[in-house]
Amino acid sequence: MRCNKNTPGIYPAGKLPQEDLVELLKGQVIDDPRVILGPGLGRDAAVIDFGERYLVTKSDPITFATDEIGWYVVHVNANDIACLGASPLWFIATLLLPEGKTDKRLVQSIFEQLQSGCSEVGATLVGGHTEITVGLDRPIAIGTMFGEVSPAQLIRSDGARPGDKLLLTKQIAVEGTALLAREARDALQSTLPEALLERAARFLHEPGISVVRDAATLIRAGRVHAMHDPTEGGIATGLREITEAAGVGALIEADALPIYPETRALCAALQLDPLGLIASGSLLAAVAAEDADEMVRALQAANIPAKLIGTVRETPGVALHDDTGQHPLPIFARDEIARFFEDREDHA
């Protein structure tokens, strides 16, 4: 029997609450001096000193999606490598496949997706594990990406500084929009046009969930102090993570936050808030204020939409500014897509 999401002491689907995660990470002792960047809030990849080069590594699963998970798992891991200024190079995949639903065709398609994803980001599949797992109702893919960067080119995830401009590529929320259109089609077909749903489903590839090219273009254009790939919890959580990691705050211009019309339509139909919707595909960066306008122009010249959305400040917390003044940015204890799928399961 499924536990009720309101059962005391039981976590809902999605990320651990930030306060609990911070407490758990405090207990992790790192006594190896080669660890340049270890676990922490807003830190999506680790950095280890290998002499003339730093090894950068990241592990992330695909749990919400069932479609194209092999391709998907490569890109979400490559994104976090790129956000530290590194190049993704080597990939390890663990595939957990459902008993009674897995055949050779399914396995072969996932392996083809892994190869396609690795080719697109310049990485090589170097190992992993595949098994048929009891108790699953869908495939789960877990990836670990390795990359490298020179010490001088490392961009720390906790590097945002007061006075920096906050830059966002593309619009929000690419990943969440594609997931809803692909995985919640039955709940949307009666209220939204088929053409809109088809466009939204293609968001996985166009504009796409990768920020590898975004990051490389940005680094070449000016001084980048921190980059972040906003995933679960959406842009709202991503902004909190990039600021809290650096011990700073931010003021965001509400009118400057770009949201795809398709995203607004899907979220309105399902009563979800786009600010809390899983948002891979957009790169969030803290950049030197003097370079910010030129960096936007460089991204746009590379056909990557970009916009300045706010400013880093010393005052802790993230606030939204609109015509009525400043308001605290909404807090999402779990991603809006996790809430949707959990609520749907509760009412099934």
Mean pLDDT: 92
Largest sheet, in brief, is: 7 strands, mixed
What share of the residues lie within helices?
Answer: 25-40%
Query: What is the β-strand count?
Result: 13
Question: Helix-strand pattern, N to C?
Answer: HEEEHEHEEEHHHHEHEHEHEEEH
Query: Can you list the strand order of the major beta sheet?
Result: 8-10-7-11-9-12-13
Give the low-pLDDT segments: none
The SS-based structural class is: alpha+beta
Q: From the alpha-carbon coordinates, what is the Rg to the nearest angstrom?
A: 20 Å
Spell out the key features of this protein.
globular
Question: Overview of this structure, please?
Answer:
This protein has 348 residues and is of the alpha+beta class. Helices cover 33% and strands 24% of the residues. The chain contains eleven helices and 13 strands. The protein has helices spanning 18-26, 69-82, 104-121, 174-183, 185-188, 194-201, 212-221, 234-244, 261-270, 292-301, 336-346, and strands at 35-37, 46-49, 54-62, 87-98, 124-133, 140-149, 165-169, 224-228, 249-253, 284-287, 306-313, 317-322, 325-328. A seven-stranded mixed beta sheet has the order 8-10-7-11-9-12-13. Strands 1-2-3-6-4-5 form a six-stranded mixed beta sheet, with helices on one face. β1 and β2 (46-49) form a beta hairpin. The longest helix is centred in the N-terminal third of the chain and has 18 residues, at 104-121. It starts with 17 loop residues before the first helix and ends with a helix. The relative contact order is 0.16.
